[in-house]
Specification:
279 residues; six-stranded antiparallel sheet; 6 helices; 12 strands; 27% helix
Length: 279
């Protein structure tokens, strides 16, 4: 008879409780829903706060521009602070770029629309901006208001184009009226807008400026037409804005002012220049 021991039976695998895994997914989903709701509320709150901050900043910039350039408060000034977050920019201490459009801006005898751009604008208005540029576009209709200044009451027409301002008048020789047109080149000079004659046409003939001035027949009358005229605008502009360029572009006269380094809350934008007394 064999005396070998019988093999031991294999142990049965452990059985997990039937209801243990069912609770964990429900709790996980609930936590995700709560976290998502909190995130949505935070984002909505940030957007609302940023919108309110942008509205406040826009109003401050608009009021400052109106005060500095003596704009009628009823003028619909448009201020654009860019598409970035104002709160995020405020954390850096400045606004990257501010753009302002003014439909009507007057200085001296001139009126036009203005496009203003300032970069790196500090929240502290006593500190300087990096760049501040003002471009004023004066249409032909407003240029025509300078008729009496440019050539006297006898000017019949003023046109803007081909890089010049052309005014038409007439001279009289032997009781015969002769049509005359004078081309003026505008430029920035000594803080004012200078209008210098570049060419003259008498009838159908183009005549050099020097030849017309020396003419015994037209010399005395031509001296008025050939004299360069200058419009002083200093008394209409803050001292921080310097007139840097005047040119004709298409059918408008474009005037460029530069205020780089000016503080939006500084005296340079609240103090105006002076023009010499009329002689």
């Amino acid at each position: 008879m064999s005396t070998e021991p019988l093999p031991e039976p294999a142990a049965a695998p452990p059985v997990a409780p039937a209801d243990a895994p069912a609770i964990a997914p429900k709790k996980s989903r609930r936590r995700l829903i709560i976290a998502g709701a909190v995130l949505v509320l935070l984002v909505a709150g940030f957007v609302a706060a940023d919108t309110a901050a942008k509205s406040y900043a826009t109003g401050r910039v608009k009021d400052g521009i109106i005060a500095a350039l003596k704009i009628d408060p009823a003028t619909p000034v448009n201020v654009d602070l860019g598409g970035g977050s104002i709160i995020a920019q405020a954390m850096t201490g400045h606004i990257d770029r501010v753009t302002v459009d003014v439909p009507t801006l007057s200085f001296g005898n001139l009126t036009g629309s203005a496009h203003i751009v300032a970069t790196n604008v500090p929240l502290d208005s006593s500190k300087p901006v990096d760049q501040l540029g003002v471009v004023v576009s004066i249409n032909q209709e407003n240029v025509r208001k300078l008729a009496a200044f440019l050539g006297g009451p006898d000017i019949k027409q003023i046109d803007v184009g081909n890089g010049v301002i052309t005014f038409g008048t007439q001279l009289t020789a032997f009781f015969i009226p002769i049509p005359v047109s004078v081309d003026l080149q505008p430029s920035a000079k000594d803080g004012g807008i200078n209008f210098a004659p570049t060419s003259i046409k008498i009838g159908a003939n183009q005549i050099a400026v020097a030849d017309l001035g020396a003419s015994p027949q037209f010399g005395s009358l031509a001296s008025t037409l050939l004299a360069a005229q200058q419009v002083c605008v200093a008394s209409s502009l803050p001292t921080a804005l310097k007139l840097t360029d005047v040119r004709v572009s298409g059918s408008v006269v474009v005037v460029t002012l530069d205020g780089a380094g000016a503080a939006l809350g500084g005296q340079g934008l609240t103090t105006y220049g002076t023009c010499p007394a009329a002689k």
